[in-house]
Design a protein that fits this description.
This is Phage holin family protein. InterPro entries: Phage_holin_4_2. It is extended and about 70 Å long. It has one domain. Helix 2 runs antiparallel to helix 3 and helix 3 crosses helix 4. It starts with a strand and ends in a 9-residue tail after the last helix. The protein is about 75% helix and about 5% strand. The chain contains four helices and two strands. With about 110 residues, the chain is mainly α.
Length: about 110
């Protein structure tokens, strides 16, 4: 995106780390009261907006990372939400397959004696 500038790969890693940490801490503290106000009906929208705000906070904290405007931050937040959903769905399918394989495989009796 032309509105987003990252100086180096290491800056991108640092930005990703900070977004993750701030989203897990500060984002959680912001999302909870907002979800109470919306009665959890707009939970996904609140998560996107809060993640975009966190991206703008990281933009203010790191000089080698720049996001020009709120809309590009919102697009990044949507991309993060899609990636997170795909990873969680893949993880759930893996756990389900692992559980089903454990049910199918017979256990061997131990020989005590």
């Amino acid at each position: 995106m032309p509105q987003v500038h990252i100086k180096s790969f290491w800056t991108a890693l640092w930005v990703a780390f900070l977004i993750g940490i701030l989203n897990a801490t500060l984002g959680l503290l912001i999302r909870f009261p907002l979800n109470l106000v919306t009665l959890f009906f707009l939970q996904f929208v609140v998560k996107l907006v809060v993640t975009a705000i966190i991206i703008k906070v990281v933009d203010a904290l790191i000089k080698n990372f720049e996001v020009k405007g709120f809309w590009p931050a919102l697009v990044i937040a949507i991309a993060l939400a899609v990636a997170s959903t795909l990873i969680e769905r893949n993880d759930e399918e893996y756990d389900s397959a692992e559980y089903q394989n454990a049910l199918v495989q017979p256990t061997q009796p131990s020989m005590i004696g």
